Amino acid sequence: MVGVGVSVALVIAASTFWPNGGSENSEVSSGVGSQPSAQVGRALSEKVPLEETSSGESVATSTVVNEPKAMAPVPRQSSLAAVHNDLLNPEKDGWITESFATTSQDSIQQLLDFTKPVESRAELGAKSFQGSLLRSDSLEVVYEDELVSVRRLREANQPDQPHHSLAEALQEFESGLQNAADRRVAVKTVSVHLEGHLRRTTHVLEASGFTAAGRLEQHATWDCEWTAENPLRLLSIVSRKYEESQCKLLNGPLLVDQTEEVFQGSDVFEKQLRFGLNHWLQRIESLHGMYVFAEYGLSLGDVNGDGYDDVYLCQPGGLPNRLLMRLAGGRLEDVTRQSNTGWLDHCSSSLLVDLDNDGDQDLVVALESRELVVMQNNGTGQFETAATLKLRDRHVQSLSAVDYDNDGQLDLYITLGFANAPDRDDPQPFVYHDANDGGRNVLFRNESRDAKWSFADVTSSVGLDVHNRRHSLAASWEDFDNDGDQDLYVANDYGQNCLYRNDGGRFVEIASQAGVVDFGSGMSVSWADFDHDGLVDLYVGNMFSAAGNRVSRQAAFQPQATPETRQILTRFAKGNTLFRNLGDGSFSDVEEAGGAELGRWAWSSVFCDLTNDGRDDLVVANGYITTDDNQDL
Question: Rounded to an integer, what distance in angstroms lies between the CA atom of residue 315 and that of residue 277?
Answer without folding.
Answer: 10
